[in-house]
Fold Rhodanese-like domain-containing protein.
Amino acid sequence: MKTMTTDELINLLDANEDLNVIDVREDFEVEHGMIPGAVHIPLGSVPERTDELDSSKSYIVVCKGGVRSANACEYLEGKGFDVTNLEGGMMAYDGELEFK
């Protein structure tokens, strides 16, 4: 499984790269802020919402600490998606947040 550090992600965000971030945390967790531009798909909803994803795109998957996002990455890789797990998740992320 591919991984990326939060520093790498922040550098890509700062460079205005076109990123596809999936946040698999629960509703109450994302209320505390999300990575700008991230799409919220709770882990339990990933199987029924894979049709919302484009298999030609790469995705960065994030959760609170990196375990649930790793599980989501394993599932999505098995479905043919190009995914990268964010190491340390939101606990390690100290970049800009967006609130929905």
